[in-house]
Design brief:
- It is built from 15 helices and 9 strands.
- By secondary structure, it is α/β, with parallel strands linked by helices.
- It has one domain: TIM Barrel, CATH 3.20.20.
- The strands form 2 sheets. It has a 7-stranded parallel β-sheet with strand order 1-4-5-6-7-8-9. A two-stranded antiparallel ribbon has the order 2-3.
- It is globular.
- The two termini are 30 Å apart.
């Protein structure tokens, strides 16, 4: 008889006791790996995301190097915007750019709701190709951007520090703003379900720019569409991870969100996050929250910081913990540092 196989990360996400400490790293596939740079030298970023065989290759690369419990599909939160009709480009050193910025109802009406299978199905295909190369106990993670965070790029047309055009639309044309976020939510639900059909075991939503809003604006303008996506996943019995951006302020506001895991930024103590979430009635698994810059420190320091997070997570009262960085790995991350972290966890 075949032994029952469990996935430690999925077990922790659902509040069960895994048979080992689950670990993965946001942006674990990327520029800090020489094998990724070899692939990237031959193809532009958008083509890499849209080519299933190449996306699967770079997704699986870190699992070949490290004893990780999950893979997250290599893609970008702006891929759904491409399906809606914008053109995504990445200029060297300048970050993403989207054509046809949405700054009026006329601009919004030019967008479409894509067919996730037909227009974005290359992501699901990449997931299927990746999963075929994974161990049965490893978890496949799909993802999307939260509607507000995706909208910031669709409105600004690029990365922004102040989000002036976003707030101009929010404060002066609320109808267009709300309709844009609702369209992104509809597309995201289709998109995530397509990823699950391709083999994703759990999905993550990144709301990296939520902290650019006041708490009141976050609750009134961003939270409803975010909640709608998470509720759709819950109704479909798909486990979810939510990253609410920098700091702890948003954690006071998310008591109504139906998710399984909160990803904690390094600016917030794990124990403080647990206290806040308990105060708003959330009993969820915590993920995080090593400062990715600490990985450039000495081996002794990296191991010490890893142990400190493990100790705090064990004593904070959270139902379970998934080890991760508090934001994505950086291009100058030494690969050996990930081995030190994983070795401490495996001890």
């Amino acid at each position: 008889m075949q032994k029952n196989i469990t996935k430690p990360l999925l077990e922790a996400a659902l509040g069960r006791k895994p048979n080992r400490y689950p670990v993965w790293f946001m942006r674990q596939a990327g520029r800090y790996l020489s094998e990724y740079r070899d692939v990237r030298a031959k193809v532009d970023f958008t083509t890499l995301c849209q080519t299933p065989k190449l996306a699967a290759e770079v997704t699986i690369q870190p699992l070949r190097r490290f004893d990780l419990d999950a893979a997250i599909i290599f893609s970008d939160i702006l891929i759904p915007a491409v399906g809606m009709g914008q053109v995504l480009t990445f200029d060297k050193g300048e970050g993403p750019e989207l054509s046809n910025a949405v700054r009026s109802m006329v601009d919004l009406k030019r967008l479409k709701r894509p067919d996730a299978e037909r227009d974005l199905g290359y992501v699901g295909e990449a997931i299927a190709l990746t999963k075929a190369q994974m161990k049965p106990e490893q978890t496949m993670i799909g993802f999307c951007g939260a509607p507000f965070t995706v909208a910031t790029y669709m409105i600004e047309g690029a990365s922004s520090k102040n989000h002036t055009e976003v707030k101009r639309l929010l404060f002066n044309d609320r109808k267009t703003f709300d309709e844009l976020l609702n369209l992104i939510a509809d597309v995201s639900i289709d998109y995530l379900k397509m990823q699950v059909k391709g083999g994703a075991d759990i999905v993550m939503m990144f709301d990296s720019w939520a902290s650019s809003l006041t708490c009141d604006d976050y609750v009134s303008a961003a939270l409803p569409s975010t909640k709608r996506i998470l509720q759709a996943m819950k109704d479909a019995k798909i486990p979810t991870i939510y990253y609410p951006g920098q700091g702890s302020d948003r954690m006071y506001e998310i008591g109504s969100l139906p998710m399984d895991v909160i990803s904690v930024d390094w600016r917030t103590r794990i124990s403080r996050a647990a206290t806040i979430l308990k105060s708003v009635g959330l009993n969820v698994t915590l993920q995080g929250n090593l400062d990715p810059q600490q990985l450039i420190g000495s081996e002794a320091m990296v191991r010490e910081k890893t142990r400190a997070i493990m100790k705090e997570a064990a004593s904070c009262g959270a139902r379970s913990h998934i080890f991760n960085v508090g934001h994505g790995l950086l291009p100058h991350t030494p690969p050996d540092a990930l081995r030190w972290v994983i070795d401490e966890l495996r001890k």
